[in-house]
Inverse folding.
């Protein structure tokens, strides 16, 4: 039998924060690349983000839910980035944009943005193949 107390909220590492270099272009005073801080989130937070990127679409009398995947992923990234503070008005102003998602698109090169998205997906558990998860559960 397993120890059920391991699943109690107070015994679980509920938020993981990792530091990662997203770009070599952002350097500190010593010329070293500055690390970004990226955090994990709960499924409850993820669900709220997903719902905020959904729209009801009426087609031929039927109503369906359509998720804008680009909007969802942008909001997922923004919610996961702890540092730099993407909601900082001065930072947004320096790039001539309003909004954290627009700031990221202005700050980062396409490959850097893709790398950040990959890190966010990884820290939130989206990097595992379903077959790997099945094997883990078996063990």
């Amino acid at each position: 039998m397993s120890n059920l107390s391991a699943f109690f909220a107070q015994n679980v590492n509920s938020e993981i924060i990792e530091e990662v270099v997203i770009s070599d272009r952002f350097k500190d005073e010593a010329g070293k690349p500055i690390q970004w801080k990226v955090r994990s989130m709960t499924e409850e937070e993820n669900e709220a983000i997903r719902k905020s990127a959904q729209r009801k679409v009426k087609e031929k009398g039927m109503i369906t839910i359509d998720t804008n995947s680009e909007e969802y992923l942008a909001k997922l990234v923004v919610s996961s980035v702890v540092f730099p503070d993407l909601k900082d008005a001065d930072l947004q102003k320096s790039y001539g944009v309003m909004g954290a998602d627009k700031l990221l698109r202005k700050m980062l090169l396409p490959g850097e943005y893709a790398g950040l998205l990959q890190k966010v997906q990884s820290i939130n558990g989206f990097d595992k193949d379903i077959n790997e998860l099945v094997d883990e559960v078996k063990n």
Q: What stands out?
A: Helices lie at 43-52, 69-80, 89-95, 100-107, 110-123, 130-138.
